[in-house]
Structures are given as structure tokens and as C-alpha cells.
């Protein structure tokens, strides 16, 4: 019951929420079907009466209300694919192949099929444009739009996916027992889950014999070494490091084997698209409508072919022609760009390909008003790009421009191929050699405090090399460049809550903010404690219960402990998207101890122990979880008091946070209290401008008014509103003073 994008691989919190019955689900689906059908029949957009493709036909564009329908259809396509992965993870006795579901690919049962040897194709240096034009005549998710021109240095890439047979060598060679092959987080995941082989391999005998069957979506089939290895990004990165050691190559260097980057794969994929357009344009006997003259549309095969036509015409496994992956050499290869370009198999379709890049926005990115948190919460340095689509990808996700993402521990119909920077050992013409990662210096927004200016990626360090002077014998030498500043420069974060260091945060929660500020404000000048006092007083006034409380944006936990000690709540949960802050809060809950460094003046500092006004009994009633405030899980249940502490102006989708307070499975119980506090100090680095709750010149609406409307529409009544002093420590005699707006609400319906 972890879903498709659980926060952490070690989050095994029991799911206590009440799931609807099958009858309730069916009734809901019938209701939605009727609403959608009526919208299609009655909405003016669909009443133009002109044939599709005519110049006068009504268009559904980004700003059209009808875009919501297409968005829903495409989202359902994603659900079909991700659900099929969850089916594949279920016990085989709990699933059954639907009558009309596509068959498995014929190569699945060709168990004697020979696995091709590892072969390489060299791709010369060149440029690629990543991003979808906003006037492209099909739906696209927000992350696809924008544009980034990337110079891709020459590289070599494996012609095929890493197959089951090749990955079996890694398993037999002790790959799952050697920490040197794994990233730190990957090794933690492996040991916590006690993983010894890929998820969809089914042992067939004693583990030492390494005999396996393979789990498909609805069947378990005999071993087939020619199928691509379906693994997560942690396993893929570990394999590349194992291969480096096997072939005496350095780890984490430009010359190392690694995963390909998004732009490297895009360079090959776009070359294949040009080949498709050329072939289809020259074909006389084709079973598809004539290709439009628009060159971009002509290059995107999913605009023209069904799944079966992908198979029959192009010998590609995508758009759900089949319900399984196929052998790594079963599809027709794409010719890599450049004169005499070598073959690359399955550059689109079969299975997704893990990329080295973290998922990030393109220059020109905009959120959509109807779904402002589709991509933005995942611009967090915790989601790897995946590229090319799988056999189960349909519609937009099977297109040339699809960009998708998953956490590195997550399983998808995804495999990988190997890449290596060719320039690092054959091209002496370039002055700077680097791995072209699209997340480096990507434009905002960035979630969960991610700073892509200095973020390494899964399995490799960010390194650039610069030409040095020629040596004595005329040889070219290279030196490492410390920075990674290729791309769009980010504006520096301003002072304020979002820029607090861990030491300053601990001082704010558990220390004092100077004698003058403490005397003026009380509670040691601690804003989390002041906020907890107001929340517990409000709960007493409206006579709500004291069973459960929740703090959203708890950071290092001071407010959570204050709620437990002041409000006598039986259980208090603190959630925050920052894993390091949650780790500190958990340590304090366990030991009651932690220290921080206070900056006195200039270079002088002083260590302090935290001052925690909570005994062991109080601490035992507090728990902390890493959770994106934009995706607060329904399984948290309902609370008597919820405090939203300076979260709205720090997240990519503040409306999503407030939207979880009410509704049928809202976090605030009927009659419960919700306290919202925020400075509304909006910054585009943290929150896309289109997602600000107010403060924009174009409509002139205040954030306070926007919050009031959202809460009122969700069944809440305003009972109190004021501004509270919030002091952020800088030095022993220097503080920052802020005045967050605090509003207190009672849920009435």
C-alpha cells in the first residue's frame, strides 16, 4: 500500500485509513463517467461541427477549459501503466489477466533466444533541443514545455539494454553484497529491504544456484536472459560501478561507465524521429492518414501510429501493442546521429530508461492552473529522469517529447543501458569536457530546499575538466574544474525563513534569540512555541478534542514538542519535506539532547545544548515523518488541531497544502482547529509565480484574502486573525524580525 511515489523506501507506517468498498468505487466511477460524457456532449468547445483537422475546427489549447478533459484522459493513461507495475508486484495468486488485455510479446517465451554481446555505438558531439513547442497540436504535461539547447559532447552508448543474462553476472559476482558499488542511499535501501536480486526475478531453487523465473504482470514465465533487466536506479547505478571495477576503470570519473543522460538519449531519439518522418513521407502504401506538413508533428510517431502499427511497421514495442517487454534485440534499431551512425535498439519503447539526471524544469517552464503540482513537487533532487517510454506507455507518454520521473528506489517498467563520455579519451578538441546534465543550474522552482547548483546525481559526482597547457612532449593534460556553472544562473536566496541553516533553525526552536528579543517576545523568542500557545488556546476556546495534533512544516520539531507539552495531546505528529530536519527532530525525541552552534560576532562561535521543555513522557507522544507538504497522505487520518507553520511560501503548490485540510478525508476533523501562519514572502525560486496565493500585480489580491477564500470554500470559519512576531537569529546581538500573518479556523462542514 505504498503507492506509486511513496516518500521513503523505509516508510512502513501502517495504513489505517478506511478504503472505499468495490461497490462505492463503482458508483463513483459511474458518476464521473456521466459528468465527463455530458461535458463532452454539451461543452461549446466540441460544438463547432467542423471535421477534425480543418482550419475552422475548435482547438483545445493550454488555456482552454476543455484542456482539463484531455489532461484527465492522459492522466488515466499514466494510471494504467503505473497500476500495471503495482499488479506486477502483487502476489501472483491475487491477479488475473483481463480478457481483452494485449498478449505478452512473442519473444518472452523464446527461452533459448541468444543474448547479444555488449556492443557500442559512438555518437559524435552535437546539439539537441529538449522541450516541446507550446503550439504543438497535442496535449503535453507542464514539464515538457520550455526549451533547453544542450551541447552534447561525444559519447559511446551500449546498443542494447543491459539484459537479464548480463545482470545475472552482477548478481553472481556479489554485486548485492559489496557496498562500494552503491550510492550511500542505495546501500541503505538495499540493506533495509534485504534485496539480493531484482524485484521481478522469482527464485527457482536454492539461492546459491541462481536459478530464476521472471514475473510479468499477470504470469510467471521461465527464465529468459535476452529480456531487459527490470531494475530501479539504485541497482542500475550499482551495476555500472561493478562494471567499472571489472574493467579496471575509475569510479565516478568522466571516463567511467555510467547511466546515459537525458540529453544524450534525446540526441539519439531525435535522430530516430527524423528517420521516421523521412521513411513515412516517402512511403506510398501506408495505412495511416497522410502526414501533416508540419515537420515537428511528422517526426512524432505516436501522432500517426497505433500500438499494432508500431509493431507491424516499425517493429517497436510501445503504445500497448503488447503487455510485456521484449528481447533486447527484437526491435528495429535506430541509427545514431552522424555519418554512418551505428545502431541503438529500443531508444523508444520496450522499457523506460533510467537517466543520470535528476528531474528538473526547463527554461520557460510554467505550471498549469488546473494541476499546479503535477511536476513541481518532484523538482527536488530525489527523482531520476526516465526516458523513452515503455511497452505500456500510451498517448503523450509514448511521444517524442515525454519527460517522466521516479524516485531511484521505485520500480517501473524500466531498465537501463550503459554510456561513457567518449570525449574523455578520444576528443582533444574541446576546451571543457563535462557530462551534460539537464538539472545542473536548472531554473526554478525547486522543491524541498533542493539546490541544483551543487547537487551530485545518482552514482556519479559532478565534474568538469578543463584543458591545461601542453606538456613537455606536446601532450594535452586536463584538470578538474570545481564549479558546474553551465546553464542558467540562479538568483541567490534572500534572507528569511527559507534560507535558515540547521544551526540557526535549532537555535530558533530550542535556544534564545538574544536577551532583548526574549524579553520582548516571551517564550525565549521561539516562534514555534508562540504558535503552539495560540493553537492550544484556540482549541480550548472552541472545545475541540485533545486526542491528536499535527504540525505541517515542523522542521526540527520545536513546535511539535510544544504542542505535546502545552496541549496535552495524546499524539502529535510533525511532518516536513526536509529529511535532515526530521532526522534531528527524531534524535531529540529519542534522547532529549542535541547541540547547535551560535554565531557570536565575526568569526567567534559558541556551542549550546538545546533547551527542551519536554520530559521523556511528552517526547514519547511525538513522532516525525518526512513528507512533502504538497502531498499530505490521507492515511495520516484526522486531527483535532493542525498547525501549518510557514509552509505556504516555501512550497511549490501552496494551494495543495490548504486543499488537504477539508474535504471528505481532510486532515482537520469536524469541529477541529486549523492554524495557518505565513509571511507570504513569495519567491519564484521556491514557488512558481502562477502558484502564489496572492501578491501578484496582475490581480492585486492579497495572500490573506486568497487563504480566506480557500478555507471558507472548504467549510472553515475564521475565528481569529493577527500578526505574530517571528525572530530569526543571526548573531548574539543581531536578529531578523518578521511578522507572519496567523489565522485560526474552525472546521464547520
Describe this protein's structure:
The protein contains 16 helices and 28 strands. The protein has 749 residues and is α+β, with helices and mostly antiparallel strands. A seven-stranded mixed β-sheet has the order 22-19-18-23-24-28-25, with helices on both faces. Strands 12-11-10-13 form a four-stranded mixed β-sheet. β8 and β9 form a beta hairpin. α11 packs parallel to α12. It is globular and about 70 Å long.
Short précis:
The chain has 749 residues and is an alpha+beta fold.
> Which percent range describes the beta-strand content?
15-25%
| Biggest beta sheet summary | 7 strands, mixed
Note the gap between the termini. 29 Å
Strand order of the largest sheet: 22-19-18-23-24-28-25
> Share of helix among residues?
25-40%
Radius of gyration: 28 Å
What labels would you give this structure?
749 residues, alpha+beta, 7-stranded mixed beta sheet, 4-stranded mixed beta sheet, 16 helices, globular
Walk me through the topology.
Elements: H1 22-42, H2 67-89, E1 120-123, E2 126-130, E3 148-152, E4 155-158, H3 164-172, H4 184-193, E5 201-203, E6 212-215, E7 220-221, H5 233-246, H6 262-282, H7 295-299, H8 307-314, E8 334-335, E9 343-344, E10 352-358, E11 384-387, E12 404-406, E13 414-415, E14 419-421, E15 432-434, E16 464-467, E17 478-481, H9 502-510, H10 515-521, H11 527-542, E18 548-552, H12 558-567, E19 571-576, H13 579-591, E20 595-601, E21 604-609, H14 616-620, E22 622-626, E23 639-645, H15 654-659, E24 668-678, H16 703-713, E25 716-723, E26 726-731, E27 734-738, E28 741-747
Parallel strand pairs: 10-13, 18-19, 18-23, 19-22, 23-24
Antiparallel strand pairs: 1-4, 2-3, 4-14, 5-6, 6-7, 8-9, 10-11, 11-12, 15-16, 16-17, 20-21, 24-28, 25-28, 26-27
Amino acid at each position: 500500500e505504498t503507492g506509486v511515489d511513496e516518500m521513503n523506501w523505509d516508510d512502513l507506517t501502517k495504513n489505517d485509513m478506511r478504503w472505499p468498498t468495490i461497490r462505492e468505487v463503482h458508483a463513483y466511477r459511474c458518476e464521473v463517467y456521466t459528468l465527463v460524457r455530458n461535458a463532452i456532449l454539451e461543452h461549446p468547445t466540441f460544438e463547432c461541427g467542423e471535421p477534425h483537422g480543418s482550419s475552422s475546427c475548435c482547438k483545445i489549447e493550454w488555456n482552454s477549459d476543455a484542456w482539463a478533459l484531455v489532461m484527465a484522459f492522459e492522466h488515466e493513461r499514466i494510471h494504467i501503466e503505473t497500476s500495471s507495475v503495482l499488479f506486477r508486484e502483487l502476489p501472483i495468486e491475487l491477479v488475473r489477466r483481463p480478457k481483452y488485455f494485449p498478449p505478452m510479446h512473442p519473444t518472452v517465451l523464446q527461452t533459448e533466444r541468444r543474448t547479444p554481446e555488449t556492443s557500442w555505438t559512438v555518437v559524435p558531439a552535437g546539439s539537441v533541443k529538449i522541450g516541446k513547442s507550446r503550439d504543438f497540436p497535442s496535449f503535453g504535461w507542464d514539464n515538457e514545455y520550455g526549451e533547453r539547447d544542450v551541447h552534447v559532447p561525444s559519447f559511446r552508448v551500449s546498443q542494447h539494454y543491459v539484459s537479464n543474462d548480463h545482470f545475472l553476472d552482477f548478481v553472481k559476482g556479489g554485486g548485492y553484497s559489496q557496498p562500494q558499488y552503491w550510492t550511500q542511499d542505495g546501500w541503505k535501501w538495499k540493506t533495509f529491504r534485504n534485496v539480493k536480486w531484482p524485484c521481478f526475478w522469482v527464485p527457482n531453487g536454492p539461492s546459491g544456484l541462481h536459478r530464476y523465473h521472471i514475473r510479468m504482470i499477470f504470469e510467471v514465465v521461465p527464465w529468459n536472459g535476452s529480456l531487459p533487466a527490470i531494475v530501479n536506479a539504485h541497482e542500475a547505478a550499482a551495476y555500472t560501478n561493478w562494471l567499472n571495477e571489472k574493467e579496471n576503470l575509475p569510479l565516478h570519473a568522466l571516463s567511467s561507465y555510467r547511466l546515459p543522460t537525458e540529453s544524450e538519449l534525446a540526441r539519439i531519439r531525435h535522430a530516430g524521429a527524423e528517420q521516421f518522418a523521412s521513411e513515412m513521407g516517402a512511403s506510398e502504401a501506408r495505412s495511416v492518414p497522410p502526414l501533416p506538413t508540419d515537420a515537428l508533428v511528422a517526426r512524432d510517431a505516436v501522432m500517426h501510429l497505433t500500438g499494432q502499427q508500431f509493431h507491424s511497421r516499425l517493429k517497436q514495442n510501445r503504445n500497448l501493442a503488447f503487455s510485456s517487454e521484449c528481447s533486447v534485440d527484437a526491435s528495429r534499431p535506430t541509427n545514431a546521429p552522424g555519418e554512418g551512425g551505428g545502431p541503438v535498439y529500443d531508444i523508444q519503447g520496450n522499457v523506460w530508461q533510467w537517466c543520470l539526471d535528476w528531474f528538473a524544469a526547463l527554461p520557460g517552464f510554467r505550471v498549469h492552473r488546473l494541476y499546479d503540482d503535477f511536476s513541481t513537487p518532484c523538482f527536488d533532487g530525489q527523482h531520476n529522469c526516465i526516458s523513452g517510454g515503455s511497452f505500456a506507455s500510451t498517448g503523450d507518454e509514448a511521444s517524442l517529447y515525454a519527460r517522466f520521473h521516479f524516485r531511484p528506489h521505485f520500480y517501473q517498467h524500466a531498465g537501463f543501458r550503459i554510456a561513457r563520455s567518449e570525449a574523455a579519451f578520444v576528443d582533444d578538441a574541446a576546451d571543457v569536457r563535462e557530462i551534460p546534465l539537464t538539472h545542473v543550474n536548472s531554473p526554478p522552482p525547486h522543491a524541498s530546499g533542493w539546490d541544483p547548483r551543487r547537487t551530485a546525481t545518482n552514482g556519479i559526482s559532478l565534474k568538469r575538466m578543463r584543458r591545461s597547457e601542453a606538456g613537455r612532449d606536446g601532450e594535452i593534460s586536463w584538470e578538474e574544474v570545481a564549479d558546474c556553472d553551465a546553464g542558467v544562473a540562479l538568483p541567490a536566496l534572500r534572507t528569511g525563513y527559507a534560507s535558515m541553516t540547521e544551526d540557526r533553525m535549532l537555535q530558533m526552536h530550542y535556544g534564545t534569540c538574544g536577551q532583548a528579543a526574549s524579553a520582548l517576545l516571551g517564550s525565549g523568542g521561539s516562534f514555534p512555541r508562540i504558535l503552539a500557545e495560540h493553537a492550544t488556546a484556540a482549541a480550548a476556546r472552541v472545545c475541540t478534542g485533545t486526542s491528536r495534533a499535527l504540525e505541517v512544516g515542523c522542521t526540527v520539531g520545536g513546535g511539535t514538542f510544544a504542542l505535546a507539552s502545552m496541549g496535552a495531546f495524546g499524539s502529535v505528529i510533525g511532518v516536513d519535506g526536509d529529511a535532515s530536519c526530521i532526522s534531528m527532530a527524531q534524535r531529540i525525541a529519542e534522547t532529549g539532547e542535541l547541540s547547535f552552534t551560535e554565531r557570536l560576532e565575526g568569526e567567534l562561535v559558541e556551542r549550546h545544548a538545546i533547551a527542551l521543555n519536554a520530559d521523556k513522557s511528552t517526547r514519547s507522544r511525538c513522532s516525525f515523518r518526512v513528507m512533502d507538504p504538497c502531498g499530505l497522505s490521507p492515511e495520516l487520518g484526522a486531527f483535532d488541531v493542525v498547525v501549518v507553520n510557514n509552509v505556504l511560501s516555501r512550497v511549490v503548490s501552496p494551494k495543495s497544502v490548504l486543499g488537504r485540510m477539508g474535504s471528505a478525508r481532510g486532515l482537520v476533523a469536524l469541529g477541529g482547529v486549523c492554524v495557518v501562519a505565513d509571511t507570504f514572502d513569495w519567491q519564484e525560486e521556491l514557488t512558481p509565480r502562477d502558484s502564489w496565493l496572492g501578491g501578484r500585480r496582475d490581480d492585486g489580491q492579497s495572500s490573506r484574502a486568497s487563504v480566506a477564500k480557500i478555507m471558507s470554500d472548504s467549510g472553515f470559519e475564521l475565528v481569529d486573525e493577527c500578526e505574530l512576531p517571528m525572530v530569526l537569529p543571526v548573531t548574539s546581538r543581531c536578529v531578523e524580525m518578521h511578522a507572519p500573518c496567523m489565522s485560526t479556523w474552525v472546521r464547520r462542514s
